[in-house]
Amino acid sequence: MRVDGRQLDELRPVRIETDFIKHPEGSVLITIGDTKVICTASIEDRVPPFLRNQGKGWITAEYSMLPRATEQRNIRESSKGKVTGRTMEIQRLIGRALRSIVDLEKIGERTIWIDCDVIQADGGTRTASITGAFVALVLAVKKCMASGKIDKFPIKDYLAAVSVGIDQKLGEILDLNYIEDSSADVDMNVIMTGSGQFVELQGTGEEATFSRDQLNQLLELAQKGINELFIEQRAAIGEFADKIKVLPKKEL
Amino acid sequence: MRVDGRQLDELRPVRIETDFIKHPEGSVLITIGDTKVICTASIEDRVPPFLRNQGKGWITAEYSMLPRATEQRNIRESSKGKVTGRTMEIQRLIGRALRSIVDLEKIGERTIWIDCDVIQADGGTRTASITGAFVALVLAVKKCMASGKIDKFPIKDYLAAVSVGIDQKLGEILDLNYIEDSSADVDMNVIMTGSGQFVELQGTGEEATFSRDQLNQLLELAQKGINELFIEQRAAIGEFADKIKVLPKKEL
Amino acid sequence: MRVDGRQLDELRPVRIETDFIKHPEGSVLITIGDTKVICTASIEDRVPPFLRNQGKGWITAEYSMLPRATEQRNIRESSKGKVTGRTMEIQRLIGRALRSIVDLEKIGERTIWIDCDVIQADGGTRTASITGAFVALVLAVKKCMASGKIDKFPIKDYLAAVSVGIDQKLGEILDLNYIEDSSADVDMNVIMTGSGQFVELQGTGEEATFSRDQLNQLLELAQKGINELFIEQRAAIGEFADKIKVLPKKEL
Amino acid sequence: MRVDGRQLDELRPVRIETDFIKHPEGSVLITIGDTKVICTASIEDRVPPFLRNQGKGWITAEYSMLPRATEQRNIRESSKGKVTGRTMEIQRLIGRALRSIVDLEKIGERTIWIDCDVIQADGGTRTASITGAFVALVLAVKKCMASGKIDKFPIKDYLAAVSVGIDQKLGEILDLNYIEDSSADVDMNVIMTGSGQFVELQGTGEEATFSRDQLNQLLELAQKGINELFIEQRAAIGEFADKIKVLPKKEL
Amino acid sequence: MRVDGRQLDELRPVRIETDFIKHPEGSVLITIGDTKVICTASIEDRVPPFLRNQGKGWITAEYSMLPRATEQRNIRESSKGKVTGRTMEIQRLIGRALRSIVDLEKIGERTIWIDCDVIQADGGTRTASITGAFVALVLAVKKCMASGKIDKFPIKDYLAAVSVGIDQKLGEILDLNYIEDSSADVDMNVIMTGSGQFVELQGTGEEATFSRDQLNQLLELAQKGINELFIEQRAAIGEFADKIKVLPKKEL
Amino acid sequence: MRVDGRQLDELRPVRIETDFIKHPEGSVLITIGDTKVICTASIEDRVPPFLRNQGKGWITAEYSMLPRATEQRNIRESSKGKVTGRTMEIQRLIGRALRSIVDLEKIGERTIWIDCDVIQADGGTRTASITGAFVALVLAVKKCMASGKIDKFPIKDYLAAVSVGIDQKLGEILDLNYIEDSSADVDMNVIMTGSGQFVELQGTGEEATFSRDQLNQLLELAQKGINELFIEQRAAIGEFADKIKVLPKKEL
Lengths: 252, 252, 252, 252, 252, 252
Known about the structure:
homohexamer; alpha+beta; 5 helices
């Protein structure tokens, strides 16, 4: 039995609250179990220097945790004067993942800033960030299309992420909470599109390893979880849900 | 008429939601108009070096804004690698104010970390932070007393803060929102105790000045607003409300 | 009796030495008791980015202490790699105060850098900095007018600052030295114009509070001290003294 | 045909030169095609604070490039004053991978510092670093066993890493050089043990995605390449080669 | 003729004002022409970690310029967040030079902090700093001997520094001011003891070179200048002048 | 007898390997005894801001050590977030020295970046860096002349550097290794041109001093060593050796 009574292949309860913050072009509060992340998408009318005058846009992400999002208070990165390696890895991952399903030429010479701020953490903050950021991004695009800033719909596919892992006793499990994550032998983050393609796969055995068979079982679990996340995303996006590439029937 | 239809001496709607975040010893989401701040109080069982072995505790505060709490996205201070002067001023102010109404000897050799994270900003974030942080602090103390960590009630008085200012056309006004704050000639933050004493007074004429008479009128407005905030704080604190020094009748 | 034998409402001896340093457009060494600050005003022929092409200038200030200005040697902020919160607060205060009495359009698209370097500290360094910086500023303006850089006199009023405080035994006192400042219950910095208006008021009760009556008595003391500082400033400025808005008789 | 004439499943020439630098306990120069990395292993007789008094050791890695290891000169991270996100990701990966095949209790309360300094880069620097660092680590352990510092052999298995990717025209390819890496749709780094287990799997589609079938083909290629790297490592390690867990015949 | 009318081998007017600042154990204001440096010596009752428990002390120096010590305002190093290479070179030089004439065992496990703050610069700030710091150091030692902190006189010899250089038209010149320094082909700083030994010699041809003969002439000039500085130092030190190793007659 | 059996005036074995790294315009691995430095010269087609539009180029240098170039592992400067004073001194020295023998107008508005990365250290790393960097610079110039980027040969003279020092027992010695350097009373770095002129002279007595006679003997030793380094440089440069100002016979 899992620590919180879930089935091995069961997601925690998911809730995506849209327009949680008034200023950003797109914003959501995504809640997955006890993990809560505010995801916002902000439009800036210019691109970083390396992209200037190429007629295409950019998507970049930043990730942070409130100091007391966790059981023990963390020192703020602004107080330390630098961003940790973990934060950098996560924000690079979020940006890369979102860029994979956006036609950057259709957003024009603009930067979309994705901010993922974890206000309460209980495992899976990076996958929740990606899943929520996708919705915030779509909402921001919607606003830009309404105002005429963007005229061709640039979102190529759905995108969601989930963690899977191997517990020493229970075997492969879906959507690890903090306690499960701390004791898991193997931890894998899977990011997939609505059409069932992988965008990113990061599997790590910290002081442990995993076999090809185990990998296959983890990927099955991940696909199941991600399909359920797509349903939540569609509900949150509303009338725009069908503008995004319809998912092949076999997937849902 | 004020930009949002309020009377000159009218506060924006105030709401204090307790236990907003699960991990901290005390936490609230304080909403004042469109300004929303998560305030948490965390207990650490040691004091900074300069206080060691003196048998007393410490209260310190940190303040931050999410990048998109504001109309324009702000660069994160962690990305800049340093905290701005404005942030430093505010967090020093919050810490100082809370220390003034706590008997630091009664909390023992502990540090109470106050974190104020603005998730949506519309003026008055520092005064909302102080007003909310007071409640988070009381909740944390309550928890420590329940667990026996602290045995004597250390809160000496209520504490709340409000902004007042002088508008070129309207004259003295209470609780400025962002638009009012941007155009005000004079901006003053007033922090008071439940017994009607000043803890801190910061009045600034940016490219303007103010007379002794105007100061007196600003202080009257501030007292009115703060008395109303005390009522909200008492409601949020619940059964502990009367453990804190009863306010002299003339004040409420 | 005060620790240095002064009356409760007595300033320490004040001396303003002009042209103390040869390179800056304006410079003074201001001595108030044992507090000594070198204040310089430097003209730069451009404004910060946020002000470009608006036809007006800017005044900004920096403040620092020599490491051994104090009883204990302080670590240099350049060695720490960052400026402390206290320094930031003070330099923001100095800049804001000076901007309040200058017509920024009359100085054109220029920045006036005010540098206040404390070479010996005995309390009241921020108020001495403001009082001295005002004179350095006027001297720099004088030079710019002589060279034709500035053609309309931009100084709108006198400006000086003083500290007042409440001593547990003596009550309200004027111009606190370091020992008095360390033990005072309440510390207030008051910045006023020659016409008796407040520019900034910062009163703080560190682990203490103050009443409305005490506030009023502090303000009386401050007005007295500031009037005396104006006399020193006028003497230092020389022939330019009368170009600045004549002070209403009742004030002097 | 590949840009350098290789077969799709062909590694570039590999050379592992041991004892390249005289001071470190273990050091190699690993050359894979035109990629050259100096890998050293240094023993420090203490562990980081979070591990003290637990009777086990730690392995941590740092990674850097000489400024002109690349076609365009890179700004040194020491000049920038901070380490980039890419560097942090890589050094965290190297450390994690090596820890997975070492029995940390057998090295005692010591830290093994792995330094990977790329002196010439042509793609695959992180996988070359891991493959070379494994050898440097074994050499350092050898020295510690000779001197009696470590008495039980702590290496649990072989460890090597390789990159695989998907080229738009050629399909799946092994061991990408810089040109191939720049134009690949999908890039995957695979780290495996001598017993055929995965230690880490990082597959990324930058503005592209990949299917389950493609993943399987990439993993086949990676296994082939890694088996060849094990042969080079065994040769470099010399008499110690057989002290490490014998590889099951089916793998080689 | 030199730009300020001096002879080729003539020092600028030198003045050493002792006890310029009240808090430090030793302090001077040294004025050499238009160069003015506040030098202080502070005693700290502990040594840096690398010297602990060795029964000897340490001398370290810091150097800084006020932003407007120069013709153009310099950005403060505290604002930049780092110390420039030039500053580091100078402060390392000052510390090294002073350590050469002090018996570090006689000062016990103490650090003497030398702070040299240039308040007005006109060339030769590093040599003026050394010459002035020597006097501040002796004054601090005097105070420590009076209070019994130090019981054996630790100063082994006099120490002073001067710059010499080669002007394209005038040839070798002594004690360059800023204009001379800017146009000189060769610049050399010479630090010597009272007994005529070299402590440090730093000669640089920026986009120029110098011959052995020129070197010899520069060293003659330097010796002459330094002998004159010793006379000023002796006067400043007062009754302690003769406690320091008497200078051989031929030198003065 | 010297610790490694050399004569007092004997250089360690010198080897200059050209084109050690493939990407840079010029690169060498210089080995002097056990000191090994990779020196590269990179051409950038622009100059720093202070030189723009003046029709001349710039040469700047950076210096670093691999963490385990030394007996004890050093913390990387990128991890510390800042460059040490020692590194800054050395890189300023290298840049200055190379600029002295290059006609900067002949290289046009270009920056030549010199990178000296010590991969193994045994004393004399800064002098080896200069000696090697000179060759890398000539190789880069050669490439630029071949491609037509530079049309007039800009190298005015040879340049090499060596250390000399005074050992308490042996007296003056040439080319100190690490052990000798650590125990020497006096350490001097001498940089000379092929025509026998000094470019830079830095002699330091750390807690010691030296006389005029000793200085003269040190300079004789340095000249001997540098003449031998010129022979190695000529061999490394090949056909270009005679394009550089022929050395007067008396020198070799």
